[in-house]
Amino acid sequence: MMHQRPRISDVARLAGVSTATVSRALSNPALVSEETRAAVDQAVQATGYRINHAARNLRHRRTGGIVALVPGLANPFFSQILSGIASVLAPAGYNLLVADTRSAGADTLLSYAEPSRADGLIVLDGTLPAAGLTRMPVVLACEWVPGLIAPRVKIDNREAAAMAVNHLADLGHRRIGHVAGPPGNVLTEARQAGWQEACIARGLTPDPALLYPGDFGLDSGQRAARLWLDQPKDSRPTAVFLASDEMACGFIGEVVRHGIRVPQDLSVVGFDDIELVAHIAPPLTTIRQPRNQLGRIAAERLLARLEGRVDDTDTVLPVELVLRGSTAPPRG
Amino acid sequence: MMHQRPRISDVARLAGVSTATVSRALSNPALVSEETRAAVDQAVQATGYRINHAARNLRHRRTGGIVALVPGLANPFFSQILSGIASVLAPAGYNLLVADTRSAGADTLLSYAEPSRADGLIVLDGTLPAAGLTRMPVVLACEWVPGLIAPRVKIDNREAAAMAVNHLADLGHRRIGHVAGPPGNVLTEARQAGWQEACIARGLTPDPALLYPGDFGLDSGQRAARLWLDQPKDSRPTAVFLASDEMACGFIGEVVRHGIRVPQDLSVVGFDDIELVAHIAPPLTTIRQPRNQLGRIAAERLLARLEGRVDDTDTVLPVELVLRGSTAPPRG
DNA sequence: TCCGATCATGTAATCGGTTGCATCGACGAT
DNA sequence: ATCGTCGATGCAACCGATTACATGATCGGA
After folding, report:
1. B51 touches A: beta carbon within 8 Å
2. Which nucleotides on chain D have any atom < 7 A from a protein Cβ?
3. Under 8 Å CB-to-CB from A62, ≥6 apart: which residues?
4. How confident is the model at residue B272 (pLDDT cuts 50, 70, 90)?
C-alpha cells in the first residue's frame, strides 16, 4: 500500500535505481542513459509522482516566488501592471505573490522581503521605507522609493506632464489648471513639476489658484471639480490637466452634472489611459502609459538580476499623448 | 565570521541551548522557562535570525500559500475580488499566489493545483476543467466550474438580471434588450436566463432580435451598440440590460457618439457596479455585486476548510439595484 | 528517605529532494 | 596488455527547521 503522496524513493524503488538517478533523470536528463530515463519515466507515470517543491526549494536555497508590493490591488491601474508581470513570471517558472501595501502593516510587509519567502521583489509603491527592502533583489516599477538603489522601470513623468500642458497651450489655453496626486508621492511631484515648468516655458503662470489637491482617486477628482465650480468664472482655468484618469472621470462627471460642457466650456486631459476612458462621453484625451509593458520589463529585469546579470540602470519607457474628445480651443 | 544567514543552530549556540529549545521558544513559548526564553530572544536579536520558511514548510507539510486562479488579472472586476481575498489571507499568515488563467497554458495551471505548491485554491474562472482541481481544498468564487463539488460563494445571477428587467419594465419599457456575456460562461447563462424569464413574467417577449452577443469586454459593448444602431428605429429595444458594466460603457459611448441621448432615447442598465460608472455621463444604473466581500468570504471559507471545518454549502450574497441616471421611461 | 509526577531540555529522526564524491565498467590510445 | 578517460550510477551528506522520545532535575507526598 502506497503511503500518502509518492516520494522520489517510491519512484526509485519501482524503477530499480537510486533516488539520485531519479532526481537526475527528471531535472537533467542528459546525465542518465536512455534506458534508465525510460524506466524512470515509466515509474513516474505508474506512481503518479509529483515533485515536492518545498523540499527542492530548501535544498536549492530559493523559493521560486517573486513578491509584488502593490498600493491598492483593487486599482485598475496597478492590476494591468500586475498582468504584465504575471505574463513574464509564469513562463519562467516563478510564482507571483501579491501583497497589498494598503491593507497590511509595515511589519507584515517587511516579512515579505525575506529571502526565505521570495527570491525577489517588485515594488510598485514609492512610499515604503527603503531600509527594509535591501535584503534581496529589488526592481522598482512605475513608482520608486527615493533613496533605494535599484533598477527602476518608469516613464518620464515630467516630460509627460509637459506634453499635456503643451497640447493645451497649443490649443490656445492660457490658464491651465492641475489636479495633483497624493502629497509625498514621487509621481505627484514629478507631474506637478512638469506642469509648472511647462507652463512657465510657455509664458503662462502656474498660479497656486490653478493647483488642486488630489489623491489619484475618483472622489478627489470630484472634490477638485467642486473647487473649480466655486471659483469665479473669469479666473478659473479653461483647461485642467489631472494626474490620473480616475480623477479626470470624477472631475468630468461632476462638472457635467453642473451643466458645464466638455470640451466646449472646459478642456480636460487625464493621465494613464485606462481602458475605459476611451469610451466615456466625451472620450478622454490623456497620456498613455504602457502599463502592461512596464510590468513585463520590470519582471524581466528582475529575472535578469536573479540570473546574476546585475544592471542598475533605469529603463524609461515612452509615453504617448492620445488625442480624443475632451480637449478643444477655449471659447472666445 | 558568520556564514550566510544565521540558522537556528547559530541562535542555539549563542543562547547556550539546543536547537529544539530555540524552536520551542519561538513557536510555543509556553514550553520553555522564562530565563531560557529571554536568552533565546536576545540571541535572536543579536544574530538577526529570521526563520527559513522552506524548511519549516517542508517539515509541516504545508506551503503557507493560497492560489487564486483569475481569468484576466487586468480586469478591474476581478482585481477587486482579489483585494478582498488578500485582505483576509495576509492577516491569517498566508501568501496569495495569483495566476492568470488567460496567459498560462492548461498544464501550467494544473501545476498550481499541487499540494506542494499551495495549500488551497480559490477559483474565479468557471471555464477550467474540473478534473485537475480535485487534488486540494477548493473554493469557487463568483464564477464556478459546473461539475466540481466545492463550496461556492456567489450571487443569484438570475434574480439579479430579473431585478434589472423589472426596473425597466416598471418604467414602462416593452422591448428590453440584453447584451450577453461570453458563450459558455456560467454567468452568461444565468443572467441571460434571468432576462428571458423576467421578460416573460412581465408579459414581454424576449425576441432573439433583442439579444446581442458580447464577452464582458468594452469592445463587445461597442459592437452591440452598432448592431442596435443598425436596427430599424421602431423595432429596436428602448432599453438594454448588459451583462457587465464594461460593456455598458462601450455601448453608451458608441450610441452617444451617434447622437442618441441616454436615458431620453435609450435606457441602459449595467452589471457589477465598478467604481467608475458612478461618475460617467450619464451615471450608470446597474446591479451592484459586493465584490470585495465576495473575495473575503471566499477566502474565509477556504481557511475554514484548511482548519478542518468542512462545509460544502453555497454562500449566496445579496445584490442591489443602484438607480442612477441612465434609465428613464421610454419616450411617447 | 524514597517514589512518582511534572517540567525543562537535549538527542536524533524526519520532512523529500539534490549533489559532491566515489565507484565501476567500457573503451580508446599507447 | 596497461593506463587514463569518460559516462553512468550509487552513497551519503546536506538544505534548516520541527517534534517524538528520552533524560534529568525538582518537588510534594507517603
Report:
1. yes
2. 7-12, 14-20
3. A119
4. very high
Which residue in the block uniquely carries the three cell numbers 536573479? A306
Non-local (6+) Cβ contacts of A12 within 8 A are A18, A19, A21, A22, A43
H helix or E strand, kind and range, residue A300 = helix A291-306
CA nearest to B212, candidates B225, B203, B199, B202: B225
Strands (E), chain B: 65-70, 95-100, 120-123, 138-141, 152-155, 176-179, 211-212, 239-242, 267-272, 285-288, 315-317, 320-322
Say if residue B3's pLDDT is above 60. no
Whole-number pLDDT of residue B135: 84
Domains of chain B (ranges, CATH numbers): 8-51 (1.10.260.40), 63-154+292-316 (3.40.50.2300), 157-289 (3.40.50.2300)
Residue A2 binned pLDDT confidence (cut-offs 50, 70, 90): very low
Comparing C-alpha atoms, which of B130, B126, B109, B127 is closest to residue B118? Answer: B109
CA atoms within 13 A on the CB side of B31: 10
Query: Nearest CA to B321 among B264, B248, B270, B252?
Result: B270
Q: Nearest residue to D18, CA vs C1'?
A: B59
Range list of H helices, B16-91: 19-27, 34-47, 53-60, 76-89
Give the CA-trace dihedral at A166, A171, A173, A179, to 10 degrees: -50
Percentage of residues in chain A having pLDDT higher than 70: 99
CB within 7 A of strand C (chain A, 2-61): 4-5, 7-9, 19-20, 23-24, 26-27, 49, 51-52, 55-56, 58-60
Q: C-alpha grid cell for residue A99?
A: 501583497
Task: Using alpha carbons, list the distances in angstroms from residue B302 to B72, B83, B298.
Answer: 22, 16, 6
Residue A173 buriedness (CB in 10 A; 0-12 / 13-18 / 19+) = buried
Q: Is residue B98 within 8 Å of residue A76, measured between CB atoms?
A: no
pLDDT, mean over chain A: 94
Helix axes A186-201, A157-170, angle to 10 degrees: 40
Set of cell numbers at residue A31: 546525465
B208 DSSP 8-state letter: G
A24 to each of A36, A42, A272, how far by Cα in Å? 10, 15, 49
Residue A312 burial class via C-beta count within 10 angstroms: exposed 0-12, middle 13-18, buried 19 and up? exposed
Residue A1 pLDDT exceeds 50: no
Q: Could you tell me if B58 and A54 are in contact, meaning their C-beta atoms sit under 8 angstroms apart?
A: yes
The residues facing A211 across adjacent strands are: A178
- Per-residue CA distances from B247 to A140, B159, B209, B254 (Å): 34, 20, 18, 11
Interface with B, mutate which of A73, A121, A292, A294 (most B CBs under 10 A):
A73
- Single-letter amino acid code for the residue at B152: R
DSSP for A89-138, please give it. Answer: HTTTT-EEEEEESSSS-HHHHHHHT-TTT-SEEEE--TTS-SGGGTTS-E
Mean pLDDT of A253-267: 95
Determine the distance between A3 (CA) and D8 (C1') in angstroms.
30
Residue A77 backbone zone (phi > 0: left; psi -120 to 50: alpha; other: beta): alpha
Which residue, chain included where needed, has cell 457589477?
B272
Residue A118: alpha-carbon gap to chain centroid: 19
Phi-psi region of B259 (alpha: psi -120 to 50; beta: other; left: phi over 0): left
Task: Using DSSP, state whether A247 is helix, strand or coil.
Answer: helix
